[in-house]
Specification:
alpha+beta; two-stranded antiparallel ribbon; 406 residues
């Protein structure tokens, strides 16, 4: 077996010591195809037994070993050493601002840190209770069916569960929470993991509290409209759950239920789509105005909440002017923003029309093919013991299609 040397630069924290967080490097020698978790466990075994790291299955199933590797939230057991080394070299990852990412021998270090947006208990172990599990419980993560429970299980058609298969794949590792930029700005944001879990039950046909759940999450100022579409959770998720997509499904559910939230999230979403359809690019001044005071009546007779929201947005507008983002006149005056040149806007409108007509929504866990591409079904002859077993069961018909009783 070919062994290679790697250096792990670990951000450490010992609560019993007063010096605060510090960096420590560990040299490990392992097969490059082994994981960063294997490297950490070797360092713990050979160099420092006090190195704290949480792990269990080592197969990307339990979600215990979530951490930041080269600045990216991920699972240590799923990240290969050679991949982490290559990423560190190509992205010139530094552990600290203006820090050196190489050792004296010039080898690039793999930077390992605890997950973000969570208090650190020790070294790479974080407190998931305060920022993850508390918020998961906030969305009532269990079914609320109507009526008395059946004698056995609830029976639903398999196709009715397709919509929630993606959110059901979540292993609660917290990688999306660690990478969430909205939670950095607003620690009270319910978060991508909890909202993805919320859609798992809102989309479940057995649940009878769909409208109440959606109304609760829409009206919460830290709920579904607090997501900023940064896509960080989608990049971080090791199981393809795409939490941001589940949040968008929650927003569509709120729109379907006709919920106009007090946070102006629905108005913002509607204004955004209308502006892009009309102009092709975003008129930010118009977006701000239409989000709080939609329509002619809303602008002529604005409500108290609209005035308050616009006033509270002034510091953001001032920062935009200072940084140069809104320095030009068309960016400051609502409605002056120009449309796309030529027939480009017509292409945008055709995209809108196609989306409205087809209402296609991709679920990463369900793949479909055209009918003419489907492979022909091949009959499988049942084994003799399967025939004997089916004949011995009452009410069975051996004339069923092969495999129908399995």
């Amino acid at each position: 077996m070919w062994m290679a040397e790697f250096t792990l630069k670990v951000r450490r924290f010992k609560p019993e010591e007063a010096e605060g967080p510090y960096w420590e490097s560990f040299d490990v020698e392992l097969d490059p195809t082994l994981s960063v978790l294997d490297g950490l466990l070797q360092a713990k075994d050979r160099d420092d037994g006090s190195l704290a790291v949480r792990c269990s299955c080592r197969a990307a199933i339990c979600g215990s070993c979530g951490m930041k590797i080269n600045g990216q939230s991920t699972l240590a057991c799923k990240t290969m050493l050679e991949e982490a080394q290559s990423y560190a070299e190509s992205h010139a990852v530094a552990a600290q601002e203006d820090g050196d990412k190489t050792k004296g021998n010039g080898q690039t270090e793999i930077v390992v840190e605890p997950m973000g947006n969570m208090p650190v208990i020790k070294d790479l172990v974080t407190d998931m209770e305060s920022t993850h599990w508390t918020k998961v419980r906030r969305v009532t993560p269990w079914l609320l069916p109507e009526g008395d429970p059946p004698e056995r299980e609830y029976i639903v058609p398999p196709e009715s569960m397709i919509d929630v298969t993606q959110s059901m794949a979540c292993i609660q590792c917290g990688a999306c929470v660690s990478s969430c930029l909205s939670m950095e700005a607003d620690p009270d944001f319910i978060g991508p993991a909890a909202l993805a879990k919320a859609y798992r039950f809102i989309g479940d046909p057995r649940d009878a509290q769909t409208k109440e759940r959606v109304h609760d999450l829409a009206q919460d100022p830290h709920g579904i409209y607090d997501c900023t579409h940064c896509f960080s959770c989608i990049d971080a998720c090791p199981k393809g759950v795409a939490p941001m997509d589940q949040i968008m499904r929650l927003r569509r559910a709120a729109e379907h239920e006709g919920i106009h939230d007090q946070n102006h999230g629905h108005n913002h979403m509607e204004a955004f789509t209308k502006i892009i359809e009309k102009k092709g690019t975003l008129d930010e001044a118009q977006l701000l105005q239409d989000s709080y005071a939609p329509g002619i009546k809303g602008k002529l007779v604005p409500k108290h909440g609209a005035i308050k929201g616009l006033v509270e947005s002034l510091p953001t507008a001032i920062r935009g002017i200072r940084t140069g983002k809104m320095r030009s006149l068309p960016k400051l005056i609502p409605g002056v923003h120009a449309k796309l040149p030529g027939d480009a806007q017509d292409h945008v409108k055709r995209i809108y029309a196609h989306a409205e007509d087809h209402q296609v929504e991709l679920n990463l866990y369900i793949r479909g093919e055209e009918a003419d591409q489907e492979a022909p079904e091949t009959e499988v002859e049942p084994e003799p013991d399967e025939i004997a077993d089916s004949e011995s069961r009452p009410g069975t018909d051996t004339g069923l299609a092969p495999g129908a009783g399995s």
